[in-house]
């Protein structure tokens, strides 16, 4: 190989490497994932149903208190469980399942997938937790919420390959209860914004805080009074309105330029 050819080859290699880095998995728009059913933020519907979701548990104290409250109002919820905490408190997870709540995957170590996490790590975080939860509850585990809500194409794809759909939360229902903002703030966020098909983000394990439990004691009676029924994510998804309204959204029409009527 001549010097010029060698240089060209080296140049091509460097370029490929650079492109490889440039092509690090990025996240597409909400419309992109939503129209494909790959990520759920909320569920369009006419019925007054709301999904309360609790992340980061189980907690040996607060999760039990939340379960008591949910039972009192005949409300069902979805728990996005951290695998290593489920190992510590398996009986709490079993109780969640036995009382009709849905169990979902929130990784094994609460790992943020916002940095250059190896694909193998994403896969094993999901697999290890999913296997454990299935064994504990006997439920198929269908939903995955990435910690911190950090996702990209790779995370979505690996989740899909493992049989999960990514579930985030309604943007107007991010209570930020994990920073302990005060009971009233949590209550106002949920009650001030409650709409059909909402997915509410709450946490059943916040170190040293019982604000979520106290807030829930006000949220549940008021939502009930307004005629809302609190259901699991799976139940919420069963009431999803037809997606036809979304067909002329910009992202979709770009993808389907040939057939779109736009
Ligand atoms: Zn979390």
Written overview of the protein:
This protein has one domain: Glycoside hydrolase/deacetylase (TIM Barrel). Strand 5 (143-144), helix 7 and strand 6 form a beta-alpha-beta unit. It has helices spanning 3-22, 30-36, 62-72, 83-88, 90-98, 119-137, 153-161, 183-193, 211-225, 233-238, 250-255, and strands at 39-40, 49-55, 77-81, 102-105, 143-144, 165-167, 199-203, 229-230. It contains 11 helices and 8 strands. The chain is globular, with a radius of gyration of 21 Å. Strands 2, 3, 4, 7 and 8 form a 5-stranded parallel beta sheet that branches. Strands 1-6-5 form a 3-stranded parallel beta sheet. The chain has 262 residues and is of the alpha/beta class. 45% of the residues lie in helices and 11% in strands. Bound molecules: zinc ion (ZN). Residues 55-56, 106, 110, 147 line the site of zinc ion.
Keywords:
TIM Barrel, about 45% helix, five-stranded parallel β-sheet, disordered C terminus, binds zinc ion, alpha/beta, about 260 residues, 8 strands
The hetero compounds bound to this protein are: zinc ion
Tally of alpha and pi helices: 11
Low-confidence stretches: 16-24, 247-262
CATH topology, by name, is: TIM Barrel
Cα-based radius of gyration, to the nearest Å: 21 Å
Q: How many individual β-strands?
A: 8
Percentage of residues assigned to helices = 40-55%
């Amino acid at each position: 190989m001549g010097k010029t050819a060698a240089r060209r080859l080296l140049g091509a290699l460097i370029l490929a490497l650079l492109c490889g880095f440039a092509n690090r998995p990025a996240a597409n728009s909400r419309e992109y994932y939503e129209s494909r059913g790959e990520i759920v933020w909320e569920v369009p519907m006419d019925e007054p149903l709301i999904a309360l979701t609790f992340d980061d548990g189980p907690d040996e104290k607060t999760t039990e208190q939340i379960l008591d409250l949910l039972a009192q109002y005949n409300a069902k919820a979805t728990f996005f469980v951290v695998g290593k905490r489920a190992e510590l408190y398996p009986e709490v997870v079993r109780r969640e399942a036995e009382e009709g709540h849905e169990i979902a995957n929130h990784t094994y170590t609460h790992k943020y997938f916002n940095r250059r996490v190896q694909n193998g790590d994403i896969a094993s975080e999901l697999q290890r937790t999913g296997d454990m939860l299935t064994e504990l509850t006997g439920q198929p585990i269908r939903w995955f919420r990435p910690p911190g809500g950090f996702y990209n194409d790779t995370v979505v794809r690996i989740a899909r390959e493992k049989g999960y759909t990514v579930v985030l939360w309604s943007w107007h229902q991010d209570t930020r209860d994990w920073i302990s903002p005060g009971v009233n703030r949590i209550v106002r966020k949920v009650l001030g914004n409650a709409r059909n098909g909402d997915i509410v983000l709450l946490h059943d394990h916040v170190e040293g805080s019982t604000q979520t439990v106290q807030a829930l004691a006000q949220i549940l009676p008021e939502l009930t009074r307004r005629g809302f029924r609190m259901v699991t994510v799976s139940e919420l998804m069963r009431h999803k309105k037809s997606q036809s309204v979304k067909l002329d959204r910009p992202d979709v029409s770009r993808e389907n330029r040939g057939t779109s009527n736009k």
